[in-house]
Fold these 2 entries.
Entry 1:
Amino acid sequence: MFRFLAKTLASGQGTFDCRRTFPRHLLHRITTLAVVAVTALFAQLLYTTQVKAQSTDRPNIILILADDQGYGDLSCHGHPFLKTPHLDRLHAESTRFNDFHVSPTCAPTRSALMSGRAPFKNGVTHTILERDRMALTSTTIAEVLKSAGYTTGIFGKWHLGDEDAYQPDQRGFDETFIHGAGGIGQNFAGSQSDAPGTSYFNPIIKHNGTFVQTEGYCTDVFFQQALGWIRSQSEDETKPFFAYIPTNAPHAPYKVEKRYSDLFRDHCSSPQSEFLGMIVNIDENMGRLMTKLDEWDLADNTLLIFMTDNGSAKGSKIYNAGMNGGKGTVHEGGSRVPLFMRLPGLTNSGVDIETMTRHVDLFPTLAEIAGADIPDDLDLDGRSLVPLIKNPRSEWEHRFQFFHSGRWTKAGLKGKFGKGDPDPDHSKHKNYAVRDERWRLVNGELYDLKADPGETTDVADSHPEIVTRMLTAFDTWWDEVRPLMVNEDAPLDVGKPFRDQFLKQKEEAGIPRWSPPSLD
Ligand SMILES: [Ca+2]
């Protein structure tokens, strides 16, 4: 019926014939029916478009951040014997940022990711000694996403301050399931000290302010909890979620079930075999996550991101994808890490973006994808990656990126962290780097990455004008960040919140067992 009417309307000849053959009242009736049908068709089309727009306007966001896994620690990046089939699948289905850089160590990268600003501007100049605390004036991406209606959760490592005011529940996260800084079971001068007796197996976790005794391997526990939360959030289709899953693995100490490290018995010795085994376990959890997203019909409306927080801690000497340096260094291998992004309808499978990008870019990127307004007074350091995602060859204005390992001495402290010169300005030209699309200036040495990606030959003497331009930009940057290092003189006698709260709860109420959410 509808096809006939559409055909009749579309054909001038048909309409003319109708006028000649059909009585007027019948012709009028057919025309009315046709108008109603076409209107209904347009309404249906409009509705379909609106539904589709709604589902991609505010996609769910899942951000996986592995700890200390480098660019080379993946089979899709050419590793000679490590197999990561699930991350390889995500790599194949993603837009890949192949020249993506973070900071040389942990807390600095996390602060940049959360705030969209250079780590030093958040006061984060170290991973310990209260210098991991992200300034309370910083606004987090979780807060911005919440303003756009997102529900937010963190599952794993926060490492931006253990004191209550610095904890993620005060920084925009609705659901928190975390261990203490810097890593599971760690203990340093200052507030850092995880719950006593915790470990990579059966870790004690602070879940929304209450300590629970979990059962299982740390990475498995974080993914299990995150997946349960994702599933419960997905029941409300009107409210998108942001799940941040920063794993503690494969950070030291290198503890993992023997069946994982045994995979590498013929290739390398301990602790490299455990390190790679921890990555295999992460890969399995990535597989479980992607399977569940498919099963729960969430994959099409979820931005899935995988990245890591610094260069490889234990893998760079086995395979480093041709780069120089690993975790903690300001060479390429210290900061260049994987970044895979998958959101059907926005990203495309197997697309490579070679433009240099940075951790601070993710804040404006996620805000744009989520349709969240960034407050006017936020002075962000990054740029949205959306134009590059839409067109990998889009115009991209030249910019310098700056790297500094920080970690200078704490004045008055006994032991190795108190030895040396505590003045940050005296460390300005130690362990720094400046990058643009072609060059990397590393502690005064200049490398032409186009010709020499492995940074083997210093060409500073041949290009003094490039060195001068990069050093001038670095001076300007240092002058900008230096006044914002608010944690330099932070007192260390502030108690140990994780330890103290755990002991208090144990005494008063006991430590309940964790109830793993069912995923079936
Ligand atoms: Ca790390």
Entry 2:
Amino acid sequence: MSDAAHRSPAASAVGDKEPRRTCLGCGKKQSKWLLHRLVLTVKHQVVVDTPQTAPGRGAYLCGAGCLKAALKRKAFQRALRATCELDLTILEEALREPVRLK
Ligand SMILES: [Zn+2]
């Protein structure tokens, strides 16, 4: 695991108990609750799992800006271990929404 920590001085108070996930785009580790969770449908379509309750593997992104970076790195295929179909328009829109969990 590479932890290039020279980027964010604001590695603020995220408690140890909180589940952390790595953003596929920028590689930053954040609390799961601050990231968008993306999952694969049965048709291999990548969708944003807003309630974060879908079963199976998830990929995490901190925002729309990281979507393209993740695509470039083919990070989805790696994280979800499958072929991924992405509808960029829909995904970007969904990623612009703030993460809101109940
Ligand atoms: Zn990111």
